[in-house]
Amino acid sequence: MPLLGACNASTESGDGKTVLTVMYMANELTKEQIADFEAKNPDIKIRFIAHDGTRLNAMLASNEPPDFVRGPAVGSARTNAQGLATELDQYLDKSSVLNKESLLPVNDSFRWDGKQIGSGPYYGLVKDWSQDATLWYNRALFKEAKIEPLSTTEPISYDELLEIGKKLTKKSGGKTQVYGLGLEWAWNLYAPLSMMILQQGGEVYSSDLTETDMTTPQALRALKWYVDFAKAGVGPTSLDPAPDGADLSLFLAKRMAITQDGYWYGGNFVEESDEIKNNIAMAPAPVMGDKRISPTYAGWGAYIPAKAKHKDEAWKLMEYFMAGKPSEDRAKSGWGIPALKSQLEMMPQELPYQKQVYQTQQAELEYAEQLPDSPYIGGATAWDPVLNKHLLRAIKNEVTVEAAGKAITDEINKLLQQGKDQIG
User: Where is the signal peptide (predicted)?
Assistant: First the structure.
């Protein structure tokens, strides 16, 4: 008897099994986990599709969506406003392994009350997450530069961070030998800039989420900081990109002293040399202004499309993936903070650096506020090209920071209006 009797799925395979179409990443939902789930649910067979945004949009548009889809909590407002995801409260209320009381607040970004995120029903669940503005640094590079290491308990200001980044940067023959500070510029500009604005008490969107204003004092201060960072040459930008578009290879090669990455980054170091493991540390997210906020930039998880054919079977996979063995393995791996309260104690503390990171991360949880999310625009995906384009113009002194802020405002507001027209 399927849960709640919803979507009484017909079998689709020759051996009488229900075929559950799943779109995810193969390194996150593995072949071994799929085999384990199928063994525990012999009436279900999974048809796996590697996550592809273009293919997903086509499937959603044709009303033939997958039954279970990878998606971020931050950025889910658009999907929910379009009515593309299934409300999960009916399942959460009846589940013995996955219920509302067990969820950490990061899952609230998957909630939607018809106007905004944060309240109302759940339309997805987070698998794991990080507070992505925290800082990782190499003590050995601080020692070489005769600079005191960052505090692992008290946040540094963004202005101080940039000054330290300058001191840690080493250049020779016109080339950068050591970057003082990496911001993962290629990955996300919208989220860290939004965090800076919120930390100053500013707003990213109007109250109805239909407009932005990047000419406010708070927005201009954040944009100027990014311009100053780029002009100082202390870290990779799109004008001076990291070799593989990410900070990790530079950080491991001792060619980057500080990188702004979330808790998940620690998973990279478990198999590294003692030289790396004994010198790395994590520090709280920096602050700009008086309000300490340390958000997740995404919070990847999953949702069940509104027109999925096999919702009850998809919920069984949700329970297995979000509360079963895969979730426990993730929690113990150090590749992300669990999304369930009961699993926080599973986070690794075996290695010395893991003990330090665990303590810093537990204290950081208190400041995990939500980033704003408008249903009329696709989050960082839409914002980042606009931000990058106009930041580069300011970095090259083609326009002032104020002019860049105005241009960003105009372009994003056009996109917001287009989104509003589409959704109605």
Answer: none
How many other CB atoms sit within 10 Å of the CB of residue 243? 10
Distance CA 305, CA 7 (A): 12
Yes or no: say if 377 and 416 are a contact pair by the CB < 8 Å rule: yes
Alpha helices of 253-295 — where are they, by DSSP H?
274-277
Token pair of 49, please?
């599709």
Distance, in Å, from the CA atom of 233 to the CA atom of 127, rounded to the nearest integer, reads 36
Closest CA to 211 of 61, 422, 412, 398: 412
For 176-230, write each residue's pLDDT tens digit: 999 999 999 999 999 999 999 999 999 999 999 999 999 999 999 999 999 999 9
**Out of 3.10.310.10, 3.30.70.120, 3.40.190.10, 2.60.40.420, which CATH number does the structure's domain 135-294+376-423 have?**
3.40.190.10
Burial (CB < 10 A; 0-12, 13-18, 19+), residue 174, is exposed
The pLDDT-based confidence of 6 (bands split at 50, 70, 90) is: very low
Residue for token pair 């099994």: 17
Summarised one tens digit per residue, pLDDT across range 258-269 is 999 999 999 999
Give the Cα separation of 112 and 76 in Å (integer): 9
Model confidence band, residue 15 (pLDDT cutoffs 50, 70, 90): confident
Tens of pLDDT, residue by residue over 127-162, are 999 999 999 999 999 999 999 999 999 999 999 999
**Residue 375 pLDDT:** 98
Q: How many beta carbons lie within 10 A of that of residue 390, not counting itself?
A: 24
| The CATH homologous superfamily of the domain defined by 3-130+298-367 | Periplasmic binding protein-like II (3.40.190.10)
What's the rounded Cα separation, in Å, for the pair 165 and 159? 10
Q: Given its phi and psi angles, is residue 375 left (phi above 0), alpha (psi -120 to 50 degrees) or beta? A: alpha
52 pLDDT band, cuts 50/70/90, is very high
- Phi and psi dihedrals of 70, rounded to 5? -70, 135
The band of 11, judged by pLDDT with boundaries at 50, 70 and 90, is: low
Distance CA 287, CA 94 (A): 41
Q: Can you read off the two tokens belonging to residue 276?
A: 């790396």
